[in-house]
Amino acid sequence: MIPTKQHLEEAIATVTPFVHQTPIVTSSSLNEIVGAQLYFKCENFQKMGAFKMRGAVHAIQNLSHAQKKAGVVTHSSGNFGQAVALAARILKVQAYVVMPENAPLVKKEGVKSYGAQITECESTLAAREATAAAIQLKTGATFLHPSNNIDVILGNATAGAELLQKHADLDFLLTPVGGGGLIAGTALATHYLSGNCKTIGGEPFAVDDAYRSLQSGKIETNQTTQTVADGLRTNLGDLNFPIIQELVSEIIRVEEDEIIHGMKLIWERMKIVVEPSSAVPFAAALREKDHFRNKKIGIILSGGNVDVSNLPF
């Protein structure tokens, strides 16, 4: 089922008081390089450093009083774990976060600093799911999926909604595609809040499951996770895929060197810190310049949680 415009409006009302209205930044030099007018929605300046704060807040706020009392559990190697931990702290709910033992120490410290209880497990999806299920059984906590949850998707939609409220005349709105929660939410925002803006995804060739899923009409998976865009290594889900199928115009794939080049340009020209996944939609705009020439393009910079001691350039 595709959420309605009323669902989106309720999500905006619920999420707005708890998140930053992140800035929209332009760069004349990047406009010149692409040959289009670019509007970057800087979710790297969001609380905990990524758009995922929006989905976490919305999902927790939509729980019943009894569910809030029992707490929430998720499994995450980083950003969504931090988002759930911080949102839960703000909303006075206990959070349990399952993290693979090889997750970056900086991300574990982040989750801990927000007051969540961390349980480490082997770095396989099966181990993450089993550990989260055991915590659910023991505590009665509600499981929150990072991207395949309608309340998370609607929360994510608020970033695109804020951009469209300021720039209603965008021709395209570009986002990265990983688990599908951001692009599905963004597509809802463009569908309900804009006349003719099209939602386009950017995805690495190395993990192009969403591109192939749109081609085949069923959820495809990846054989490898070898991409510098570590936030985009996950697969689409059965709740976000129907929204993507119906409302996303296309997905543009980019090479690893294009992602790194795009990331470097954003750092150098805009003087802001973004993670590799954030650079993927900008890399898509660079790759398909003819497609976007003289158009108005929104780009969601999804996050800035990058290990600065291990940059790809």
TrEMBL record:
Q: Give the UniProt keywords, A-Z.
A: Lyase, Pyridoxal phosphate
Q: Please report the stretch or stretches of sequence annotated as the Tryptophan synthase beta chain-like PALP domain.
A: 15-303
Q: Hey, which family's this protein in?
A: Belongs to the serine/threonine dehydratase family.
Q: Which GO terms describe its molecular function?
A: ATP binding; L-serine ammonia-lyase activity; magnesium ion binding; pyridoxal phosphate binding; serine racemase activity; threonine racemase activity
CDD domains for the chain: Thr-dehyd (cd01562)
Q: What cofactor(s) does the depicted protein rely on?
A: pyridoxal 5'-phosphate
Q: What is this protein called?
A: Pyridoxal-phosphate dependent enzyme
Q: Which PANTHER family match?
A: SERINE / THREONINE RACEMASE FAMILY MEMBER, SERINE RACEMASE
Some GO term, biological process aspect, for this entry: which one? D-serine biosynthetic process
